[in-house]
TrEMBL record:
Protein species of origin: Winogradskyella rapida
Descriptive protein name: RNA polymerase sigma factor
Domain RNA polymerase sigma factor 70 region 4 type: 121-172
Native organism taxonomy: Bacteria, Pseudomonadati, Bacteroidota, Flavobacteriia, Flavobacteriales
NCBIfam families with a match to the protein in the record: sigma70-ECF
Domain RNA polymerase sigma-70 region span(s) in chain numbering: 25-91
Length: 180
């Protein structure tokens, strides 16, 4: 890929926006899908959130000022869209977000797109027991292998707080997995 500021300029230029956006889709759709999928857990929901994320990116790219990396900005949008979906679905079902996440975990085994084994299912159950922020931090660090600096940019918090959240999350997951 060309340098980021040139790419952003192409995304913000009405003459090159369509082609640049197609490039952006190719570069990030799979990565963002899996980030979203780890939050919402369900394939159909992840597809919907991914589509909403790219619509929001397309509509908002002109307002992007480059105060963070483009990828961090897009991850933030994807994260917020994922949380919005969970909140909306939980509210619609008149249950808590935690109950909604429990249902999503229980439905994983029936999801034809879930390719995990029993161990991965246990890990997902363990992650679901974490508070929302710890879930996000754990997923971004453990699965997406993001640097704390990038996660801090995405979640708009300090690296120190993230390191503490990750450490606590890892301990809770370890305790959950070794409890039986």
């Amino acid at each position: 890929m060309v340098n980021e500021s040139e790419f952003i300029a192409r995304l913000q230029d009405p003459k090159s926006k369509e082609n640049a956006f197609r490039e952006l889709l190719q570069l990030y759709k799979e990565r963002l899908y899996w980030h979203i999928r780890k939050i919402v857990l369900n394939h159909a929901d992840a597809d919907d959130v991914l589509q909403n994320t790219f619509i929001k990116i397309y509509r908002s790219i002109d307002k992007f000022k480059g105060e963070s990396k483009l990828f961090s900005w897009m991850y933030r949008i994807a994260t917020n869209e994922s949380i919005t979906l969970i909140n909306k679905n939980a509210k619609r079902l008149q249950i808590t977000n935690e109950e909604y996440q429990d249902r999503a975990i229980n439905n994983l085994t029936a999801d034809v797109y879930f390719e995990g084994d029993a161990i991965q299912l246990q890990l997902q159950k363990a992650i679901a027991t974490l508070p929302e922020k710890q879930q996000l931090v754990f997923n971004m660090r453990y699965f997406d292998d993001l640097k704390y600096k990038d996660i801090a940019e995405i979640l708009e918090t300090s690296e120190g707080a993230l390191k503490a959240s990750y450490h606590i999350a890892a301990k809770k997951i370890e305790a959950f997995l070794t409890a039986d």
